[in-house]
């Protein structure tokens, strides 16, 4: 068994991660940290759940585990990882702190100095469908953000083939409220969310834009920009992106490209032509489903893509990266911990 | 008092219309028709509501009223209106049957022959913000569709100014489930809708595309096409459209255009720069709110617009048209019948 | 016009009150206070709303109005009212501070000393259906709590007739989240509420139990106790109570009693025998609907009752009390400011 | 591997069952039937799901499997089981058809004659927590209804100890909409359910009352009656019951009884004193959580209990019964197919 520790186990991502790891055949939970609920157990906070003890960050013994997952806010993650880093320890970081290889870009999008630039060379962007081989050679995996996971799986094949035009990518994304985290705020108050739809940080202002552009540009071999409209929608989990592109290729040709690209992928499913992605197809699973649609106007194609933001968009993909790092079956623990049929 | 009859009073649009008309200072309800609940009263169907008697279409005496509202399905509306038409009777038709002046276009988008082409010349498209003066001279007002109302208020100023490029208009629209009508279907089943997001009829396949293109082209003085992605979202009422355009003008310039265009409109509100439209701003009101957003990529601008699909998108706008037809204050009955502060 | 001031205008109750007062034919808003949004206007907070200026409590000139509504938390309400009280000023207090004539009982249920016991003799419990005549003679109306409004309208006729047995009243109540106020907390976080049902403060621990028992005992002329199970349900507004009683009378007999008691009431509707109360019947209205049901076991009867917690359970009833205080038609401003047909 | 067939695999219960069986270590799906989607595969109906072929009832080869699950409507189930019954075949019937040993009682509650009375002696009521030993000896397991599962786990310990008084049991139950099945109807329309709460079949009219009374009476050794108020609530899945009893015992004494009774049960969890059951504790799990609460009035105790209606209330419990019938670990396939931590 591989001993793992989870930092930040009582946020939505942490809870989901613990849920998945509990069903993983090769992972053994060594510690779970929390600040708000230190000293309690999971069953204190979620009555009926397992009696897993929760400790503070200080009490966790990172030296006794083979891998850690960090589900703490950005900046706190890099401080923590810097402190406990040792050669051989595998780190899957679910924050944004290691997603930019370049500390200047990190500062540009997150507004703070990177605190562990010396570790950036040991980190890799953990989108398995595009960087699977690279991931195995690194110690720190930067688990992708939820919006970028959905958008990059939808756009990656186009970027790789050189089909994306700069300034011609529009990502209209809708997310459930768990994406905003478990901290109380007026924005996440039930009455404010219910029967409402709320666009926010439109254009190129959301920090996930930086992450999407970075990876798309890497795949394309040249600079690409995207326009992004995130929207808060009255549901608990899930992201649906409707993405508009002009590629010079017809929808059926693009559909073939997607089908070919993802033919062997266990967690990406290209829907039949004409079938759009729905959240119901991915809820509680590690899947991403993708649809390709002719928009009927002068070469415009819409790509619809859906993920569960807490699974493929966070905890599930983290476990997928964990499996890759340890040479396990990439789907271990991810087939049955879900609502998938 | 003006005597009015409502055909189709027990669907979502009909119910909303009755609610508004009950609070209208100059309207008097003469009859309400229904097929499923004939012989019952409103208070039988909605216990606690007023005891308004419901009759069948056959029992309604259209000869005894000054105006009728038709909230019946398309094709049934034109059959009905053809049968009861008489000079002097004012008709506000909430179906699609009189939205196309050209019966060929009607057939193209609705797949059926128009049954009353001789009445088309007596009808006018009832979007008051753009056709207020025309409306007064007609007997039949084609009340706009819900999606078109939202999209046309958002795009009309650009079309009028000649700022829209063909094939450069993308309308990503999200609607609540009342837009699908009150008939039971698997698509509207609570469990299918809840925690789901469902795109449908993407591209140029939804019949509302025809209506939007027709009116935009009329305003622009030349042919325009739009790409449209309607999506079903887990909420009861409301439409939020995020619309992407390239106009050669900056967002602040466009914001000024919108502000100027709608400065005197009682029901269209241009939000401050940077503030996006939300459903909460329009729920239960006859308002449309509009935001203008720089997307940060090469001239792309996003227009966000929201309406309550049952009020401004249907029954409220119908009453606005009724007020225009009868020379009343255009806001009569529409200020307090709502959640507006 | 009657000049009114609203203290606490930006919580859910305050917003609803402003909405109703804006449509009231005889009320004129003189000031609206807020702490969090001082210096802004309603349209800053709720874009698209009216441009009503908001001021701090200190800036409000209570001397210049005929009536005030206090939508501030308990304890803050009595401090405020004590400070601005003057003979002739009409006060409708939506907090709990004047609901108990006896300061000892107030302390028992709210855990704090009453700060204005000298004003208690000037206050009256504002449930119009039972205390309409009394209300006219007082200067301070204690507007009932939301749960008590629903429960007392359902149980009042039984208490008056001496049909309630002590320890035989069980109130199982479900409320929407607006009842918990607009302050952010984990309990009201969308993800915690959605797809969940949460009982809380069961038994005789919720402070509304004190209020219900006080009024029921007054109506009955003897001490009565109730068992109460409040539950948080994933909806924005509304309370449904299912109330179990044994009265020695059959359901049809009780139905007659309710029908007789409420025959002339504009806002209480007794549903036909066998029809249970639903939130849909009262949403956005000042109505309470009541159903009476034989439970089939040895004399047990269930009373179902529903109100909109923000209207009849708060702001609407406050305006009803305002109307009574000023000798207006009791329904003024309450007929059309709603979703009622 | 044990070969199993599922009849009625495309309703909510069937889908959930297929999901669980797919993760079961000893079950192998041999066939799945459906009427509406015959000839298609799961991935046709639920894009992204496994490509499991669906056949009609007639095409299914019941002779080639070791066990069948019947998720078809009552009356259809008994017809089907009668037709395919053979000694040795294990049948887990999720309909109501074999829940009453006495065909007269079946007719009383379901209004139709039993079509296979000769098989009743081969059937057993499949509530493992109370009938585990008996179940192993039978060929047909009548899987309990969703409401009865929740109520019987909450009341069973009291019935066994002789603590229940007739006519003193009140079950106030709230259910998500999946409990109403996947057939479209106005009752399950999103707009009718959302922001609404709907009691129905109150008293002793719901057929689940018959089932609850039958089993409670069996456990108690004498006739017991219950009062029941089912309510439809805007959520997809889950049942919360708040149950009122007078037993002559204090809440702490009852809490000890529950703790003792369920100490070894893998799927029933007695919450700490004062903690009420919530749906969040059981969603997507096979658990039932139970809370015990002193109501503060003369011996009244409230038992709160929650289950996921599709898992412990249907498909999960069916697999639990399957495990018992085949002598497997009772929790096989039920630990990780869920959202449980």
Describe the structure.
4 copies of one chain form a homotetramer. Residues 337-341 of chain A have low confidence and may be disordered. Chain A has 2 domains: 2-144 and 312-325, NAD(P)-binding Rossmann-like Domain (Rossmann fold, 3-Layer(aba) Sandwich), CATH 3.40.50; 147-309, Dihydrodipicolinate Reductase, domain 2 (2-Layer Sandwich). The longest helix of chain A is centred in the middle third of the chain and has 15 residues, at 146-160. The two termini of chain A are 28 Å apart. In chain A, helix 1 links the parallel strand 1 (2-7) and strand 2 (27-32). In chain A, the strands form 2 sheets. A 7-stranded mixed β-sheet of chain A has the order 8-9-7-10-13-12-11. Chain A has 341 residues and is α/β, with parallel strands linked by helices. In chain A, helix 1 (12-22) packs across helix 10 and helix 6 (146-160) runs parallel beside helix 8 (207-220). Chain A contains 10 helices and 13 strands. The first copy, chain A, has helices at 12-22, 42-45, 76-84, 103-110, 128-135, 146-160, 190-193, 207-220, 251-261, 311-325; strands spanning 2-7, 27-32, 67-70, 90-93, 123-125, 140-142, 170-175, 198-199, 227-232, 239-246, 268-270, 288-294, 300-307. The relative contact order of chain A is 0.15. Chains in contact: A-B, A-C, A-D, B-C, B-D, C-D. At the A-B interface, strand 7, strand 8, strand 9, strand 10 and strand 12 of A face strand 7, strand 8, strand 9, strand 10 and strand 12 of B.
């Amino acid at each position: 068994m591989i001993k793992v520790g989870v930092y930040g186990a009582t946020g939505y991502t942490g809870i989901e991660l613990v849920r998945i790891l509990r069903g993983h055949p090769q992972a053994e939970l060594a510690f779970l940290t929390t600040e708000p609920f230190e000293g309690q157990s999971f069953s204190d906070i979620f009555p009926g759940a397992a009696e897993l003890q929760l400790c503070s960050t200080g009490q966790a013994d990172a030296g006794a585990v083979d891998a850690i997952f960090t589900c703490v806010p950005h900046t706190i993650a890099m401080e923590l990882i810097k402190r406990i880093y040792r050669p051989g320890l595998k780190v899957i970081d679910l924050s944004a702190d290691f997603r930019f290889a370049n500390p200047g870009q990190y500062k540009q999008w997150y507004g703070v100095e990177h605190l562990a630039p010396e570790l950036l060379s040991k980190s890799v962007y953990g989108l398995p469908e595009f960087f699977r081989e690279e991931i195995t050679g690194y110690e720190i995996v930067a688990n992708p953000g939820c919006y970028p996971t959905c958008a990059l799986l939808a756009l990656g094949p186009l970027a790789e083939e050189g089909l994306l035009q700069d300034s011609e990518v529009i990502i209209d994304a809708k997310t459930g409220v768990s994406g905003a985290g478990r901290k109380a705020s007026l924005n996440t108050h039930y009455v404010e969310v219910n029967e409402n739809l709320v666009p926010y940080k439109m254009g190129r202002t959301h920090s996930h834009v930086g992450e999407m552009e970075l990876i798309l540009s890497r795949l394309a071999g040249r600079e690409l920009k995207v326009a992004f409209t995130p929207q808060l929608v009255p549901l608990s989990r899930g992201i649906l992106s409707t993405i508009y592109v002009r590629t010079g290729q017809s929808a059926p040709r693009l559909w073939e490209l997607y089908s070919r690209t993802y033919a062997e992928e266990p967690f990406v499913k290209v829907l039949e032509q004409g079938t759009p992605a729905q959240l119901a197809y991915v809820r509680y699973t590690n899947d991403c489903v993708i649809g390709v649609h002719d928009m009927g106007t002068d070469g415009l194609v819409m790509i619809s893509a859906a993920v569960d933001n807490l699974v493929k968009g966070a905890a599930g993909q983290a476990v997928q990266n964990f499996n890759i790092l340890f040479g396990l079956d990439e789907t271990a623990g991810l087939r049955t911990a879900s609502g998938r049929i």
